[in-house]
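Our consortium's second objective concerns turning raw sequence data into structural hypotheses that experimental partners can test. To show how far this objective has progressed, the report includes one record in full. It was chosen at random from the queue rather than selected for favorable results. The single chain below, 373 residues long, was entered without modification.
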Amino acid sequence: MAAVSGAARGGTIEVRGLTKRFGRIAAVNDLSFTVQPGRITGFLGPNGAGKTTTLRIVLDLVNATSGTASIGGRRYRDIPDPARAVGAVLEATNFHPSRRAYAHLRMMTIAAGIPAARIGEVLELVGLTADARRKVGGYSLGMRQRLQLAGALLGDPGVLILDEPSNGLDPQGIAWLRDFLRHLAREGRTILVSSHLLAEMAQTVDDVVIVSQGQLRVQGPLSALTARAHSAMRVRTPEPDRLAALAHRAGLVPRPLVPGTVLVDGATPEILGPLLAANQVVVYEVVQVSQDLESVFLSLTTSMSDSPAARLQAQGPAVPPAQGPWGPTTPPQPQLPPQPQWAPPAGPPAPPPPPAGPPPAGPPAQSPEQPQR
């Protein structure tokens, strides 16, 4: 990879109370977050979450209904020589199909007052040197994404704002983009990357800002979001009620799935195994069920309406907001199925009945070990 010339430390991107309405539709609703220099921040959310609208407001392409968005303490329109301060990739369709890649970049350098020598440098950075004289109409979507990135880098900016930059890239291109963005962040640049694919961004970003229906769901380091992923144990037993009482007593959360099957949230084999053995609970099957990052993402971005009250009503009783690097936002609580639920027992569970005869001479029979999933 060619060396990137030294850029000034990127400025902090700050969004405060941002709201944008299109008629009666609130595309962005009281959104606030911060993007720090030297880190890659993933701006994540499902399609229609308000990500692109927010980025356009940050770049002064759309006027906000209320709230502010600044880069390095200034609105984009107030930044002197903005091409040297902020680079942006919003879409890969604003090329004239008959114009060659070099000519496209040359027009951008003339408009921004950037030396033409920079064109060759950025084309090498994005791997398009051999295709510089080809017409853009013959480019694949992935090549157009690279050309867009080359244009954003012409001014050697300290801030990069990229909207779905991996769209159209093959696996090799995605891996290249990941390494390239990390290289730029190590130079102290501020990088904000929007995407609706958490599994892909999880390998790239340092921090995340997750939005849904125009509202902030959570913000903080990716490692903190990862820590929210939890495991559960699925148990098939002829004693589901007794198992549920024991799980409640141990501080776990049992949930009925189908008759005779219990999902114990927060349990691990090391926790649940001794509990079952000590209380002689008969089990037919025990399987560990791990929740991956994508499942956490879906739980954070799936809601029934824009109304916080409706979301709380759909999700059950409110819980105190979590504090720490994530701020006061908490993820939606798991929705329990509309089956009869187990409540915590009023008192300690009844002891198991004594065995009818003397203990067996050998170890008790055990269910076949089930593979972990």
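The partners drew two points from this record. Confidence is low (pLDDT under 50) at residues 1-7, 303-340, 362-373. The first strand starts at residue 13 and ends at 22. Both points have been shared with the crystallography group to help prioritize constructs.
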